[in-house]
């Protein structure tokens, strides 16, 4: 909501002076322009223009104008889209720079992108308006990334830093699988289920936090492999179920504070079931053969449809 982004202090009374505060800067109607800059002179003249009007009228005009701007759902959603897009782009740029400079192992850098971008973007959902319009506007941000993955994966657009930060082996064609499924999951979760559905929370949290942490922990501590899949470790699967579940609980509390979901023991149990199911699916050899960025969200949505 735009009202959470913009703050405007309208009037302040102090010893028969009228002050107007915009962006945390005060000026009064008897401010002296003799020692001020041109910006101060402009504010002085504006204050003099307002001096003759009743203060209640001025307050009503200013507050109603701000309210109309803040409560306009189209303007609010456009601002929210720009802000959330800027946050997502900043994170991507950060991980591109770390990949370019070799600050992390390439696989670790890729998983840091995997964990952070989707979860950070979901934090921005309360900025959007309620209803279908807000859901569609929010989904435009990851939808743009779908187009980007297609262009990069097909070799139409060259961006070595992005390819390196999102691929296992530096091959641009890898972006047509895992990264494309990742962006598609976040887009569809927002557009179809949105912030009022625990299914959206489960799908994104198990994909981002669960699958991402599983790989990081599994590579470091996963010496004991699963009997049915030697490419996966016991500790990695446990880490995935735990991280996915805890992320779901965190976002349940987060969205509940805005009134979007009603947290309950039943919902907590549902998240536990979904996270366990997603972890089992991720550890299956079929997920390795296909792509766990595809199988994990599909399992989360399917199981979530039964338990929620």
Automatic annotation (TrEMBL):
Main location: plastid
Record InterPro entries: Phytol/farnesol_kinase (IPR039606)
Location in or out of the cell: Plastid, Chloroplast membrane
Keywords (A to Z) from UniProt: Chloroplast, Kinase, Membrane, Plastid, Transferase, Transit peptide, Transmembrane, Transmembrane helix
Transmembrane segments: 74-92, 112-128, 134-157, 234-255
GO molecular-function terms, A-Z: kinase activity
Membrane topology reported for the UniProt record: Multi-pass membrane protein
One Gene Ontology CC term in the entry: chloroplast membrane
Sequence similarity: Belongs to the polyprenol kinase family.
Protein name: Probable phytol kinase 3, chloroplastic
Originating organism: Olea europaea subsp. europaea
């Amino acid at each position: 909501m735009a009202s959470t982004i913009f703050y405007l202090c309208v009037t302040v009374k102090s010893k028969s002076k009228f002050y107007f505060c915009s962006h945390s800067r005060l000026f009064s109607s008897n401010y002296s322009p003799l020692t001020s800059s041109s910006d101060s002179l402009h504010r002085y003249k504006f204050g003099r223009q307002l001096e003759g009007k009743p203060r209640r009228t001025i307050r009503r005009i200013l507050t109603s104008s701000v309210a109309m701007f803040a409560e306009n759902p189209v303007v609010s959603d456009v601002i929210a889209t720009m802000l959330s897009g800027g946050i997502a782009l900043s994170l991507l740029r950060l991980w591109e720079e770390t990949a370019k400079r070799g600050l992390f192992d390439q696989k670790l850098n890729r998983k840091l992108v995997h964990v952070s971008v989707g979860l950070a973007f979901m934090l921005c959902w309360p900025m959007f308006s309620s209803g279908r319009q807000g859901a569609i506007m929010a989904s435009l941000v990851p939808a743009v990334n779908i187009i980007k993955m297609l262009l990069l994966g097909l070799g139409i657009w060259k961006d070595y830093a992005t390819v390196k930060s999102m691929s296992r082996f530096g091959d641009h064609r890898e972006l047509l699988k895992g990264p494309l499924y990742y962006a598609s999951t976040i887009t569809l979760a927002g557009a179809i289920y949105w912030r009022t559905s625990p299914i959206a929370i489960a799908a994104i949290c198990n994909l981002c936090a669960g699958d991402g942490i599983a790989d990081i922990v599994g590579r470091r501590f996963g010496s004991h492999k699963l009997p049915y899949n030697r490419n996966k470790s016991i500790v990695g699967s446990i880490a995935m179920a735990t991280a996915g579940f805890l992320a779901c609980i965190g976002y349940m509390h987060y969205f509940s504070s805005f009134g979007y979901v009603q947290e309950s023991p039943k919902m907590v149990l549902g998240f536990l079931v979904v996270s366990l199911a997603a972890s089992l699916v991720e550890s299956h050899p079929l997920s390795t053969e296909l792509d766990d960025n595809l199988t994990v969200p599909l399992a989360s949505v399917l199981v979530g449809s039964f338990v929620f």
